[in-house]
Amino acid sequence: MATKRILLVEGNDDEHVIKHICGTRNVQRLDEIKPQGSVEQLLENLPVRLKESDVEVLGIIVDADTDLAARWQSLHDQLAKAGYLNIPAQPLLDGTILVPPVGTLLPRVGIWIMPDNQTKGILEDFLQFLIPEGSRLFKHVQSSVANIPKGEQRFNQFAEPKAIIHTWLAWQKEPGKPLGIAITARYLDPDVKQVDVLVSWLNRLFFQ
């Protein structure tokens, strides 16, 4: 009998962030949060995960990276091939949930594309929503990262959100806390409206 509630994520940072959000927001415990190593590996593993007979609900959290439409299309194609119907042409703003086709043993599936189902970006872009609005310190963080002397910047543009969020955490009372623990420590605020939307999606997907 299918009873498991499983969430697939890209990596360990995603796992720990979701666990700490669930903990601080009193979301019920999932059976497993499974890092897949990369979005490519997650997509490769997805057809097998969809056929596992003990999975009742399967959640998927991935980064949009540089192309939200392409990321959605890759998931859309996999799910359509598996037999899911009425898949929207683009991700829903409050998170997508698909019911299994009648007469199949497929799980209910939910998809959340970081940061917010509507813009390109990564986990760390989502985490910037958790920084207090109007923070003077955060403005200084952004300015510092943007004004690294020419020739001294060691990361590419795509990694800039990571540099920003880790600089923010490096300048807290207890510098350098991991992303998940930083949420519990309230260096990143889990009570903002963007987290409300994510938590609502998790609850609707797994527990309603």
How would you describe this structure to a colleague?
It is a single chain. The chain is of the alpha/beta class and 208 residues long. It has 2 domains: 4-122 and 191-207, Rossmann fold, CATH 3.40.50; 123-184, no CATH class. It is 43% helix and 14% strand. The chain has helices at 12-24, 39-51, 68-82, 123-128, 136-146, 160-170, 179-184, 193-207; strands spanning 4-9, 32-35, 55-63, 96-98, 108-114. A 5-stranded mixed sheet has the order 2-1-3-5-4, with helices on both faces. Helix 2 (39-51) packs parallel to helix 3 (68-82). The radius of gyration is 18 Å and the shape is globular. The chain starts with a strand and ends with a helix. The model has no long low-confidence stretch (mean pLDDT 97).
Task: Compile the SSE list and pairings.
Layout: E1 4-9, H1 12-24, E2 32-35, H2 39-51, E3 55-63, H3 68-82, E4 96-98, E5 108-114, H4 123-128, H5 136-146, H6 160-170, H7 179-184, H8 193-207
Parallel strand pairs: 1-2, 1-3, 3-5
Antiparallel strand pairs: 4-5
Helix pairs in contact: 2-3, 5-6
